[in-house]
Design a protein that fits this description.
3% strand, globular, mainly alpha, 4 strands, 26 helices
């Protein structure tokens, strides 16, 4: 309650103060202009997605540059719909895996398998499903496309969030428990903020990684079903088929403009906002900047309008579940025995379901295929495995030092961020013409020189995660290294490599899985009527998908899942455990 005197000048001063806090200023006008423009574009694109399916046949993809803004809008909306679904998936399943041992037994192996399933493998079965849900509407094909993009984004984000939750510093966890915070409050006040920097960088990487498969997700060919949704991916597919270099260049230009726009309007403000969640005990010397974030901070009316939503969100964050009463010692022993028995029962259930799934797949595949077909797929898997290991090793040697150098310099990271996003988003399909022409002209072996196309889109997982790890490296540890004059290899071995190692493992794991996925578009490339093929599991699955041979598709996916799971369990998972136990910040 405010008591006002009879002094009119005092009244006018209070009124002026109230107006200054509520009335819009110039920053509000600019912010509302941006919001209104984005809302109109989103509504227009959403309305187009609900058009009749016959419209795709009557209005095929046109290579007229005037259509590029419309195509870019449609592709961008699909990308953001997929990233939203990926965030929801990450918060639910990665948190369950990090918090529950029983859930982890299912979720982590499932993520290992799902990240190895190629986009074409999902499209083989989801196109018919979604188009059956929305008959006669483009919405079914749109959902199939969004789901395909989701499968190229979600696993990386889930692994990143899971790794961050498992490496929260113990002292901070003990302090939060000492303050009596519930599990819900600890998650939103400690664990989610601690995980924010890594999750944000991996979200940017996933957004860029989705562009790598945009052609496969928009220009869909499964057996006798062919759908070309309006978008940059379909534009590229048509341009490559017609050998139109000019159209390919227009698509790359449009893609660059879109990436710069959503980097400036979304990701850079989020990076600047999330800088306050860095784990350190001394103030950082340099902070990332964003003109959009500064604009929002200077608005008046926009802050007032968002106030109720902030209050509701804050109330949810303070929500407290009823406390669980402590058990007596005897009761705790009985509870531990019951927990072990439940673990055995849970493991048995998981094993039974797994055996049933394997047997079902085997029965389906064995209807038309023999053991010789299985050996061909297995042999192709060995060749693709060799390519993946060599390419990940080369990418690590190149990008770890570069990522550390960028991440330790926020000003450099600010400038490099959009460039790195564009390079990560650059689809390998654009380079197929040059690869085909060069290989045909020189007579080189496709089995060797098509291999680098596998890692073009996935090497950036390593770079982005290393940048995230170096950016989150505490300032007090940097100062300690400076005080003790750690130099050269000692600095790398004692300080920075242990500091970024959990992030690197996440990047290398997802890059490995992404390389397996990318093999389906990198081992079979074409330019017009010229088609090159490298022997491997990716080309095996790509040809089976194009022919609508579901038995071979299932066999190829099963073999790829087997290789990826074994690689993760024998290499990446032990490194995860090592990073969690030995290299967490405490």
């Amino acid at each position: 309650m405010v008591f006002l005197s009879n002094d009119r000048r005092g009244h006018s001063a209070v009124a002026e103060l109230a107006r200054a806090r509520i009335l819009p200023n110039g920053y509000d006008l600019v912010a509302f202009a941006f919001v209104a423009a984005l809302a109109v574009l989103a509504l227009h694109g959403a309305a187009e997605m609900r058009a009749p399916l016959e419209g795709l046949a009557t209005a095929p993809i046109s290579l007229d540059p005037a259509r590029l803004p419309e195509y870019a809008l449609r592709t961008t909306l699909r990308m953001f719909a997929a990233i939203g679904a990926s965030l929801l998936f990450t918060f639910i399943f990665a948190t369950l895996a990090a918090k529950s041992r029983r859930a982890e037994m299912i979720i982590i192996p499932a993520l290992d398998i799902l990240q190895s399933v190629p986009v074409l493998g999902f499209l083989t079965f989801t196109v018919t499903f979604f188009m059956g849900i929305f008959p006669g509407s483009q919405l079914g094909a749109e959902c199939a496309s969004v789901f395909a993009i989701f499968t190229s984004q979600a696993w990386n984000m889930a692994f990143s969030f899971y790794q961050s939750l498992r490496t929260v510093p113990r002292d901070l966890d003990e302090v939060s428990r000492g303050f009596g915070l519930s599990a819900w409050q600890r998650f939103w006040r400690l664990e989610a903020p601690f995980s924010a920097p890594g999750l944000i960088w991996n979200t940017m990487m996933s957004m860029s990684g989705g562009w790598f498969f945009v052609v496969a997700s928009e220009a869909i060919t499964v057996g006798n079903t062919t759908v070309q949704l309006p978008g940059l991916g379909s534009w590229l597919a048509v341009a490559i088929d017609k050998q139109d270099f000019a159209a390919v260049s227009w698509a790359v230009l449009a893609m660059g403009v879109v990436i710069v726009l959503y980097d400036q309007l979304l990701f850079r403000p989020i990076v600047a906002w999330a800088d306050k969640f860095r784990f350190e005990q001394t103030a950082g010397q340099e902070k990332p900047r964003s003109w959009v974030y500064s604009l929002i901070q200077r608005t008046r009316l926009l802050k007032s309008l968002l106030g109720p939503f902030a209050w509701v969100w804050g109330s949810l964050m303070r929500f407290r579940l009823p406390a669980i009463t402590r058990k007596a010692p005897v009761a705790r022993r009985d509870n531990a025995l019951a927990s072990r028995l439940l673990d055995y029962a849970w493991f048995a259930l998981v094993a039974v379901v797994g055996v049933w799934g394997i047997w079902t797949a085997f029965a389906f595949v064995s209807q038309t295929l023999t053991w010789s077909d299985a050996w061909i797929a297995f042999e192709g898997g060995l060749i693709t495995l060799l390519r993946v290991l060599v390419l990940i090793a080369i990418a690590s040697v190149i990008w770890v030092p570069i990522g550390v150098w960028i991440g330790l310099r926020p000003a450099v990271a600010e400038r490099v961020q959009p460039v790195a996003q564009f390079l990560a988003a650059f689809p390998a399909n654009v380079l197929f013409p040059f690869a085909v022409i060069a290989i045909v002209a020189t007579g080189a072996s496709p089995n060797i020189w098509l291999s680098p196309l596998m890692v073009l889109g996935t090497q950036w997982y390593i770079l982005f995660n290393v940048i995230a790890g170096a950016s989150a490296f505490p300032t007090d540890l940097k100062e300690a290294c400076s005080v003790y004059q750690l130099r050269s290899w000692t600095w790398w071995r004692r300080a920075i490599l242990p500091g970024i190692f959990p992030y690197y493992v996440t990047g290398a794991l997802t890059a490995s899985g992404g390389s397996w996925n990318a093999s389906i578009v990198a081992e079979v490339v074409s330019w017009g009527n010229t088609k090159l093929e490298a022997f491997g599991l990716g080309s095996y699955i790509a040809k089976a998908t194009e022919a609508g041979d579901y038995q071979r598709v299932i066999l190829g996916i099963a073999v790829m899942s087997l290789f990826v799971t074994l690689l993760n369990r024998t290499l990446w998972r032990p490194l995860y455990v090592f990073a969690e136990r030995r290299l967490r910040l405490n």
